[in-house]
Design brief:
The protein is mostly helical. It is 46% helix and 8% strand. The protein has six helices and four strands; from the N terminus they run ββββαααααα. The chain has a two-stranded antiparallel ribbon with strand order 1-2. A two-stranded antiparallel ribbon has the order 3-4. A hairpin with a 5-residue loop joins β3 (39-43) and β4.
Length: 165
């Protein structure tokens, strides 16, 4: 069967039915002059009804949410990594008018605050060396930590020394 374009909604049907599968219009009975599907009557204060005719909606409406999609993804990436850029992306998203972007910015900010609170707690209790944060590219600290943990692993079965407590 040949595809049929609905005279009412304009969608393409596969032609296996004698009505539109999208709006239900029967092709043989449809008359464009009598079509009142977009006409509504709204009651007014005086008891009269006002006739309102609606135009067809466009196929794709832009909600504006897609413009922040990559900002949200990159913001989560930096929030998980715990960098200062994560705060910048979170604050940027919080200041947007889009409620979806504000929500994600707030979640990113909470994740970052929780990460920094955990790191502060670990440094305060002595379970983390602050030099790792201040100089992350210093490989001598990592080499020393690896060597001491390797000696502890080979010499004893106590795994707590590997984690520093």
């Amino acid at each position: 069967m040949n595809p049929i374009k609905c005279p009412r909604c304009g969608k393409i049907n596969d032609g296996t039915t004698d009505f539109c599968i999208y709006c239900g219009t029967i092709y043989d009975e449809y008359n464009a002059e009598e079509d009142d599907s977009n006409v509504f009557f709204i009651p007014t204060r005086g008891g009269k009804k006002q006739e309102v005719k609606l135009n067809h909606m466009p196929e794709k409406l832009s909600s504006g949410k897609e413009s922040y999609r990559w900002m949200i993804i990159i913001g989560y990436l930096f929030a998980i990594l715990g960098s200062v850029l994560g705060f910048i992306f979170a604050i940027y998203l919080i200041t947007r008018k889009d409620s979806n972007a504000r929500k994600h910015g707030l979640v990113q900010l909470v994740v970052l605050i929780a990460e920094f609170a955990l790191i502060g707690f670990l440094i305060f209790t002595g379970q983390m060396d602050p030099n790792i944060i201040l100089n992350p590219f210093n490989t001598t600290n990592m080499t020393q930590m690896y060597n001491s943990s390797a000696m502890n692993m080979s010499g004893s079965s106590n795994l707590s020394s590997l984690f520093g407590f």
